[in-house]
Amino acid sequence: MIKYFVLDTNVLLHNSESISSFADNTVVIPMSVIEELDRFKSHNDELGRNARMVIRTLDRLRSRGKLGQGVEMDNGGRLQIYYEKDSITDPGLDLSLPDNRILAVAYTLHQEGKKVIFVSKDINARLKGDALGLDVVDFEKQKVNFDELFCGQCEMEVAPEVIDHFFAEKSLRMDDFIPQPNEFVMLIDKTNPRHTALARAKEGGELVPLVPDYSKVWGLSPHNKEQRMALELLMSPDVALVTMVGQAGTGKTLLALAAALEATINYKRYERILVSRPIIPMGKDIGYLPGDKDEKLFIWMQPIFDNLTYLLGDGEKGTEVKKGEDKNRGAEPVRKKIDKLMRDNILELEALTYIRGRSIPNQFVIVDEAQNLTPHEVKTIISRAGEGTKMVLTGDPYQIDNPYLDSSSNGLTYTSEKLKGKAVHGHITLTHSERSDLSALAADFL
To answer: Which of 53, 11, 49 lies closest to 30 in space, CA to CA?
Structure first.
């Protein structure tokens, strides 16, 4: 039986190519969806871009016949625009709402005996569809299994002489185990669990020791082995893309900034550092904030400034304030250091809204809070990388503000899983909160 996939507007706004994702079946687009696309088409963000692309696709399909009657698509399926007026069965919903009219189209086709599947990224819409007796699904393309997400490391029990050989030869190959490129392997002595070695896999499966020079970066020492692995990836010039996943307080942004400062200023591998984070919701105009562009960005970039203040401070990343002293006494000099880096064009802070269309060569690029980006948005950002550029994506898949993304469909986890096994990509999942005992407690239990 031919399936009829009724698409909600949010599916088309999430992925403009979703129309062609249901081969050999009929894709139904209610007229209310066309009206909603028309409202989004003028937006200067990812939603507007996707709306315009869908509209252009539908316009091209008009040459094949009447869209209201259904036209053939290149994938072997059909596409039909469904006109709702006087033709839908009222399922008892408030039909003045576009979402309910879209559901009513699916309900009408279901009542006609057709095999209908309602596709939406809106949980509430799926709940209402299920209550009406419809088959409902999320848009599954560009999703990964978050519970089985590649973590970037593994452990292996070996004979003690294997570890001794690794230390002596600085290299190891194992016939019965071929790790992913840039995967970290903890070799553990079968007879003595304290006798261990930490190795990084090269392309082809060769295990090599970690670079000693990367054990301390910009005065920052790792607090656990995952942070040490992260520094190895961040500082390795042969790894052009690094993805880091971790809960709040695990040090993702701090480690990335420390490596960027070290690699750019001390090693001089890159011309400058570009730091960006999505304006939530992604791509919305920040004109309602006071001040010029830089003043507006300062509010969104405050977490970046906090980390830079820590890294550029004195002593142990900010000298301890003694009793009776002004706790803000060192803030002004540190801010002057940050301002100087920006004036000297070594550090640039930018909203992701303005990255589209740019070419970014020879830069260390950090995209913070990447879990709020769609897979297509991440693809767009990574494709901006020019020759000699390193990209770092950080984020916490448990803290997603985009209502149509989850831990399995966001751009950060999708990218880390899909690029697994590529020699230019490295991934690490940070599991231990090092910000404070309170932060760790909140991450684990709240």
So the answer is: 11
